[in-house]
Each structure stands twice: as C-alpha cells, then as structure tokens.
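Re: that backbone. Tokens:
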C-alpha cells in the first residue's frame, strides 16, 4: 500500500525531473539562438534601424494590440521588450 509520504516523494521526483528537462531544453535553445542573435547584432551594428526593417515605413507603436509589449523608438533606435522577459516580472 502506498503511503502519503511515498506519494509526496514520487511527486517531488516528477517535479525535479520536469525542472531538469526544462533546464536542458532551455540550454539547448540558448546554444541554438545565441549565435544567431550575435550575428544579428553584428549585422545591424553600423546600420540605422530603418535600414534593417523589411519595409521602409516606420513601425507602428500600438500597445493595445499587445499589452505585454513595451516599445520605444528614437530617430536611430527601436526597442521592443516583452513584459514576461523582464527580470521583475512574476510568472
């Protein structure tokens, strides 16, 4: 017969396994993405941001479409950050 303690221990092992698998997946994703991000930064380093857009029109800043997106723009810079990527954001 399974005791409550056995059940709790089994659940804790499952949680640890899920966390380990998640960390491994994140590390694999990071290893795949980091070189692409670095290449993109290198490509865009000396170019004005308008030149990097797929269209020549300025991006539309509309926070109503995506309330979790923080956008900012200057004459030479465009920045968009998702709220859940911020360090203080609680998930």
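Recovered sequence:
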């Amino acid at each position: 017969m399974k005791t409550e303690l056995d059940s709790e221990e089994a659940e804790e092992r499952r949680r640890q396994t899920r966390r380990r698998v998640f960390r491994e997946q994140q590390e694999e994703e990071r290893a795949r993405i980091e070189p692409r991000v670095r290449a993109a930064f290198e490509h865009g380093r000396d170019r004005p941001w308008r030149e990097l857009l797929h269209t020549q029109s300025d991006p539309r800043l509309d926070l109503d479409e995506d309330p979790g997106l923080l956008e900012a723009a200057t004459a030479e810079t465009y920045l968009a950050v998702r709220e859940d990527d911020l360090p203080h954001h609680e998930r």
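The CA atoms of residues 49 and 77 lie 6 Å apart. The chain is about 50% helix and 10% strand.
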